[in-house]
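Recall the central idea of this unit: under ordinary conditions, the amino acid sequence of a chain determines the structure it adopts. In this exercise we apply that idea directly, starting from the sequence alone.
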Amino acid sequence: MPPETDTGGQDRYSARCITSIHDVGREQWDRLAGTDNPFVIHDFLACLEDSGSASPETGWGPAHVLLEDSRQQLVGAAPAWFKSHSMGEYVFDQGLADAFERAGGHYYPKLLVAVPFTPVTGPRLLIGKTDAAECMERQRALGSAIVGLARNAGVSSAHINFLTSDESHAISRLGFLQRTGIQFHWENRRYASFDEFLAGLSSRKRKAIRRERREIAASDISIHRLTGEELTGEIWDAFYGFYRDTGNRKWGIPYLTRDFFEQLGQRMSDNVVLIMCRRDDRWIAGALNVRGSSTLFGRYWGCIEDHPMLHFECCYYQAIEHAICNGLARVEAGAQGGHKIQRGYMPVTTHSSHWFANQGMHDAVSRYFAEEGVHIGEQADYIERELSPFRQV
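Accordingly, the structure predicted from this sequence is:
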């Protein structure tokens, strides 16, 4: 990307691309990113880049977009990457890639605005705190800069994954197609305790959860919630073993390096809530959570021993208890997982935005997304109506 690119005719701004998060100051970036979502802050992106987890060698070439005003003050940013594959994104477009390749096109490389390996909704067009009109203008300027970067680089497409609904709306007139998905989140209705949460469930669901929890409580497994200085090298060694076991089974190659977790513990230890399980004087399982200002985000789970109900206890019930004890508004337990519904996690709509250089591809994908969106909406309505574990009032 050249030093300045088209921002949709808005002369107030110019955009440029940097190839490392370290090419912009930590305070400058975080002033735009805010503190609510821990995955878009400078430290988290630095952990990904510095550990080699997100790098050109792994198919994630950093191409972060910076937006400056006429005084060359930084007023916007977007975490962006040139991708040579579609792994680690959680908005699945491999089918689109296959169709485009069969038609004689080259889908890769593509431009992706996202947080690698992190299917968490949050700001992707970072513009700091400003009034509504300025907010919309900066978001559109960033969207135009992203399209400009894709055009200048000659790539097939630009994608923005897990952006907010407001951001999706702001750039809808820039040629981006809108796509929706479903995740399952737990909402804290100002519960005073886990039992108060259970009291809101149907009798059958409440009894099932209590039975699952009793099974773990009666076992010889102890459960520990670790954060801050408790995150020692020994703890990370154990957890990385769990993570590798899960990664090897699910993806073939784990996305994150051991050094990523070490750096996460050094740079963001107070954001980490690591739930670890111990039996016979050794760690046997663990679940990594990252805390934002109002949300606990469940990220990774793994184990070296299989115990019935341990996954549910470690990933879901412990996270709910932590959220209640700490006054957090919600728990987001990651992508997919209809089994979360009976445990109080209900459907939430996610958003992504997609721009295609080829008009034929744009038109075909537009029709597909429209049909897919209807199906997803019907699915969410059905879950709310027929599968909710909560008592009918």
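The two ends are 56 Å apart (CA to CA).
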